[in-house]
Amino acid sequence: MTASTQHALFDYPKYWAECYGTAPFLPMSRQEMDELGWDSCDIILVTGDAYVDHPSFGMAIIGRMLESQGFRVGIIAQPDWHSKDAFMQLGQPNLFFGVTAGNMDSMINRYTAERRIRHDDAYTPNDEGGKRPDRAVTVYTQRCKEAYKGVPVIIGGIEASLRRIAHYDYWSDKVRRSVLFDSKADLLVYGNAERPLIDIAHRIARGEDVNTITDVRGSAFLTKQALPGWKGIDSRSIDRPGKIDPIPSPYEEITPNTCDSKQSSDDNDANAVSIQEALVEKDITKTPQVIDISVYKNKSWREKDKPWQTTYINLPTFEQVKENKTLYAHASRIFHQEVNPTSAKPLVQRHGERLIWLNPPAEPLTEQEMDGVFGLPYQRRPHPSYGNAKIPAYDMIKTSINIMRGCFGGCTFCSITEHEGRIIQSRSHESIINEIEDIRDKVPGFTGVISDLGGPTANMYQLNCKSEKAEATCRKPSCVWPTICGHLDTDHTPTIELYRKARKVKGIKKVLIASGVRYDLAIQDPDYVKELASHHVGGYLKIAPEHTEEGPLNNMMKPGMGSYHKFKELFDHYSKLAGKKQYLIPYFISAHPGTTDRDMINLALWLKENDFKLDQVQNFYPSPLANATTLYHTELNSLRNITSKNLAKDDANVPVPKGTIQRRLHKAILRYHDPANWPLLRATFKKMGLANKLIGSKPTCLVPHETRAEKNMQHNKGKNNSQGFKTSPGQQRQTKGNQSRNSFNKKQGQGKQGLTRFSDNQFSKDDGQNQPQSKRNNANKKRKPSRQQ
């Protein structure tokens, strides 16, 4: 059975419940359902975010999209997961539960890059942390199953998308199974998922068993065996990995049937000849073959036969990738090659006795469909039940507009491509202008400033492949690395025209561009840089070179600094012509795979030379399924074929900064101007033999020599002060109550000064313990510095 042909989003017959009309807000309580005249919900969405009825929030898009099909949709936002009760507040859904962790992966939302717990959550009222569980998709699904047995549960969103096959989990530092196994959900939809979810909803509404829905693009499910009508190929026949156990030859089991050695030898020779002849007959490279060109002649691309549509790829099993890093890197390469919606094959991976079947990505939305999705009746504000509580994520995007989806940049540390795909899906100018007017009329306190017209990248709007055939067959992870593809359309005219139309909307004072600008694309069209610098920058423009050195940039799949310097030259030129003082704010990543200590030092020297002092530095965060996460886990260069030949090369092993000490060091190097980092940096530079070059007062030095004040501070750090109280970091200072008790103990002769980390008899008479206090202080000044210095 091949993957089903999917309808246009708005061509499905409406579900019977359409007669109830559109809800002001999707209901979150029984009372709201009663006010709408509903006796039940057809679909209930469970989310880890607060419910904000805005097209920048996933549950709002999916909820309004399902509502437009005629379904009655309820929302359970940030439920108490400690029992099933909160999952029963809207009753049993007629069709299914839809579960998502929210706009962010729950683990990334809860933990920093150093695995520390965050105490805030921008997607929660009043920025309160701890309102969603770790691995929220799994926990929510299990509670839904517990609340109503037999009701299908479909999982989706960024967390499910990035865990759809076996993946490295940074927080547990191991390879974990697909989330389908842990959550026990019935189906998984990945990507933005409007198309697959609408198709599944209508099929369940028609009475189809969710377990029989196996042909929807953009979905994944569990099965015990491959689907009938499909042929499987081993992933290693596409991209052969090296350094794995050899596959034994099947001919080693052939043994003679006679004891006569001569007869046995003759039989073996005869068998060998017959086998060789049989192989020659089957080898298409040694026998003439008839090629039927009728399936290709005079046919467009979409009409030609496509054998991959009935072929799936067997990935190495979960058990194999868990134990073998080479096979993990190989599986990651195959996964990232099979993301083209037109030519991708299903991926199959065995986990124990069952398989996970991953269908190819859904077809991208057309411009008309994108307009329809963003034109749904959003209220553009949080649900009234939150009252006056502030939701930081909403405040940040309430006047911003998403003009497109997808990204063909392919940056290895980013998961946008794994979630939204490489093909750009853009809205029409009319749709975007209508949303600007909607913001003007609906958003309370609107000041006339649109905070952003963008998306994953600001300037990929309507940039697509110029060749239909090339786009349909391309398996490259990036259209702009190592160089910009010749098939890529880099004309920014549609974006420039959009900016000009937006500025003319009545009541709009300023339209800013806050999304990151892909500067290697921007320099292909200087007119875009001129328009941007002249009208759409509020003093500062953020861009992301991420690094300056070739090694890290290659492992990030980012352009070299030549593109940055050319963009800066254009930006400064057009800013000056516009009579404005405007500045670029570059973003950098520390501790990225492929980065050495010297790379970080060279970056710091570049920052100092260009007079940049970074207030915040982001350490690399290994998110599931990202290419850079594979580099981090395997320490192998999986950006090229994982063959024995490539693995034997010098650059096959990728240097990876791991561990708290190394990662903190890389972060500290970028913040070389912070005095708190100077002791660590001095010690590191001395160890590397770079003290003479990097420590001192010269312009090329990163940190100054140690001052007398620092030496005194280091000498006293962790010691007792003159009153005998502990002052080392983390130790509790004496309170008034225990000060009085301490003085009483001193009077009784119980306790001595200076007993911090030594034994009670650490001081003898020769130590000067019985000398007058002034003499002891003078002796301490002459004492040699401790090892901490």
Describe it:
The protein is α/β, with parallel strands linked by helices and 789 residues long. 34% of the residues lie in helices and 11% in strands. The strands form 7 sheets. A 10-stranded mixed sheet has the order 3-1-4-5-8-9-13-12-11-10, sandwiched between helices. Strands 21-22-23 form a 3-stranded parallel sheet. Helix 8 links the parallel strand 10 and strand 11. Helix 18 crosses helix 20 (561-577) and helix 21 packs parallel to helix 24 (659-670). The radius of gyration is 32 Å and the shape is globular. The protein starts with 29 loop residues before the first helix and ends in a 7-residue tail after the last helix. Mean pLDDT is 85; it is low at 243-262, 278-287 and 721-789.
Care to give the gist of this entry?
The chain is α/β, with parallel strands linked by helices and 789 residues long. The chain contains 29 helices and 23 strands.
End-to-end C-alpha gap: 71 Å
Structural class: alpha/beta
What is the number of helical segments per DSSP (H or I, 4+ residues)?
29
- Reading side by side through the largest sheet, how are the strands ordered? 3-1-4-5-8-9-13-12-11-10
Provide the gyration radius in Å. Answer: 32 Å
Percent strand equals 5-15%
Largest sheet: 10 strands, mixed
> Assembly state here?
single chain
Return the average pLDDT rounded to an integer: 85
